[in-house]
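Board notes (copied after class):
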Amino acid sequence: MWNVLLSFSGLVALIQLLFLPFFPESPPYLLLQKGDKAGCLKAMKQLWGEGNYQTEFDDMMKEKAVTKGTKIMNVLEVLKEPSVYPQLSTMLLLLLSLQLCGLSATANLQKSIIPYVSLGVAISELISIIFCSSIIDRFGRRILMWGGYLLMALILVLLETSLLL
């Protein structure tokens, strides 16, 4: 019954993919990245209901004013910045600790290829993190979530279909 359990995560991804278009963009994203004040206020009302959100809006405007002169760094610039080494070390430690979860050992693989599978999974996770963090600034979180959910649902449908055949 493990294939049913695997299909369940695909079903959840499909449901999220169907409902994502009905949710607005994040208000801070609309205001800080896009500069869309009307869209920000509309998203606040849609997410939080009717009310006066002038205080939250003013806070975001203060944040925009503070970050106006701040340079947005790309991935390579972040990797060269010494002040972020503790955070990068923590992320790297978490990424490496995922390799100790035993996922490759429980997949009924030959013992001789388990280290290579673990290394391949780690490399693909690292590439995914770098790729996603670099495109999120260009396209926003919504497009990234759409693509991720769509790809996850598609792959799980193909996997389940191939298992059934």
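Comment from the instructor: DSSP finds eight helices and no strands in the chain. Helices lie at 2-19, 27-33, 37-48, 54-67, 75-80, 85-97, 114-139, 141-164.
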